Amino acid sequence: MTRKLEGQITIITGGARGIGRGIAKRLAADGAQVIIWDIRPEYFDSVAAGFEPIDTMAVDVADPESVATAAQTVLTTYGAPSIVVNNAGINGPVVPVTDYDFETWRRVIQVNLDSVFLVSRAFVPAMVEKSYGRIVTVASIAGKEGVPGIAAYASAKAGAIGFTKSLAKELVTSGVTVNAVAPVMVETELLEQMTAEHIAASKAKIPMQRLLGIEELAAVVAFAASPECSCTTGFVFDASGGRATY
Ligand SMILES: NC(=O)c1ccc[n+]([C@@H]2O[C@H](COP(=O)([O-])OP(=O)(O)OC[C@H]3O[C@@H](n4cnc5c(N)ncnc54)[C@H](O)[C@@H]3O)[C@@H](O)[C@H]2O)c1
């Protein structure tokens, strides 16, 4: 594997476990200097993860103050990041819209969508200043298609896709690219927030008849986060085992 990200300061939100940890491991193997942001940094275990980040910070990406404080620390200590991966997310409960509690709706939108705005906004000026950056957001096939029972999650992910396309257009001549990836289901602790019926229905919709692997998704992100992804911005990369139709 080439170390095409050698020395690049990289923020990965929700990087303490699951998909974020897998992305962090892959980008670190490509040479990136990874900083993990997570609301539960204690989840991170470098032995289990198989790599050492340069820093692990406690951040609630849905909280404007928490993001602003952590971003300032990063900018002061490490300088402008080259890569920001907006990965942190929650599924929320699987219930119909008519039973969806407003507070829960707000939290799902905040963690999955407000966070993408807050974290991107915090680093864009420094990335533009150095005329280079890669922002990659982990969206979901749910944001393209809509899924019954998880309207808040699907709405937030659709919003993250709209945000990606908008910010990409704002930064199109800056050297900073902004892309997203829309995965299908991956076996992580996130599935503990879902019902067995919901998981079965999601699996049944994947034409490859298997779940997506964390390493497979990390490989897509690794390309979108690399210097090679230089003429692609505002795009949503597919990782859906043949499910996506656009
Ligand atoms: N697992 C799937 O099937 C799947 C499919 C499509 C998209 N995704 C997306 O991938 C991303 C990662 O999901 P995962 O499956 O690894 O989930 P996970 O629950 O295993 O890990 C999520 C990580 O995000 C952190 N986190 C949660 N809220 C946070 C907050 N407010 N601030 C900072 N960190 C926070 C958690 O502590 C955890 O470490 C999410 O955005 C999710 O929506 C997952």
TrEMBL record:
This is 2-dehydro-3-deoxy-L-rhamnonate dehydrogenase (NAD(+)). Its EC number is 1.1.1.401. GO terms for molecular function: oxidoreductase activity. It holds the Pfam family adh_short_C2. Gene3D superfamilies: NAD(P)-binding Rossmann-like Domain. SUPFAM superfamilies: NAD(P)-binding Rossmann-fold domains (SSF51735). Belongs to the short-chain dehydrogenases/reductases (SDR) family. The keyword Oxidoreductase applies. Keywords: Oxidoreductase. One of its GO terms (biological process) is monocarboxylic acid metabolic process. NCBIfam families: PRK12826.1-2.
